Amino acid sequence: MIKYFQRNNWKGNVKGKGDKKLDILKTIKKNIITGKWWFSAHALKKCDEREIDIEKLVISLIEGEIIEDYPDDPRGHSCLILSYIKNQSVHTVCAIKDGSAIFITAYYPEPLNG
After folding, report:
1. Is residue 82 in some structural domain?
2. Percent of the chain with pLDDT over 70
3. Hey, is 94 helix, strand or coil?
4. In the chain, how many domains are there?
5. Does the residue 95 lie in any domain?
6. Is residue 87 part of a domain?
7. Tens of pLDDT, residues 15-44
8. Phi–psi pair at 51, nearest 5 degrees
């Protein structure tokens, strides 16, 4: 069963000092492993539209890396994670809400020209 989170003005929050970028990634990965993760309704819709396998996406995020960090997002600290499903890159916007990882959206990035 896929868990989902209905966004109602969510506010992610990473507490503590140090490198917040590493803290949020570590927290997201830990939450995936321990089952503390949710998809927003938007993320579920977009994964379905884009034919992204949700189970494979969650598994791929354990090996993912942050490529953009948004510590000052007005809704709370979030980040863009690059991971791979069958050697195809996928981008996922993630945050932390109430101690759980929230997946906000996911997409296959456009290939770079040049």
Report:
1. yes
2. 81
3. strand
4. 1
5. yes
6. yes
7. 333 467 778 999 999 999 999 999 999 999
8. 55, 45
